[in-house]
Amino acid sequence: MNLSMLFEYLPYALITNFTPGPNNILALNSTKTYGFKRSWKVLLGICLGFTCIMIICGIVCISLKKVSDTYQNIMKYIGTLYILWLAWHIFRSKPNNILENSPKELTFLYGFIAQFINVKVMLYGMVSISTFVLPYTQSALFIFLFILGMSVLGAIAALIWALAGSVFQTFLNKHYKIFNTIMALILIKSAFDIILIK
User: Fold this and answer.
1) What residues form the membrane-spanning segments (predicted)?
2) Which of 33, 26, 78 is CA-nearest to residue 47?
């Protein structure tokens, strides 16, 4: 990757990672509901699952040289259904009392498995590797470092959203109906954006 391609990649990476999507909204919603301390398992699951998806995307891109249209279409619709389900779940959710008798928080496994139906993450990995890496190098070391960089950036984005949920927990829980409606609408828009991807 030359310097000009790096400058083209960074805005794409920052926008993709830091705009609302399933991971960021899941992270924010968990810390808003349970606090940062009780959300660390789901956050760890999100981060490690994200890294696994980036590794899989790298292997698929190297093996196939191009993304299978059939696979991409199947994952697009599965991911859209997941995002719509998440939007409905967030829209209907109510703030929980952050006490020991409150419902059990989201688990590591939930955050990890959610990555395997998160089309935004898959498309991000496929597009990044096939567009910004493979045309310039197929060096295993460079691809590994690139995947590591994508994973760190994804983790930072999820943690920033989680921190926002934790810091504004009282405010967000007080105005949860408005907040949940806005987050649900953002997710619905994301779902329709994915359907429209050619």
Assistant:
1) 42-62, 74-91, 111-134, 141-164, 176-197
2) 26
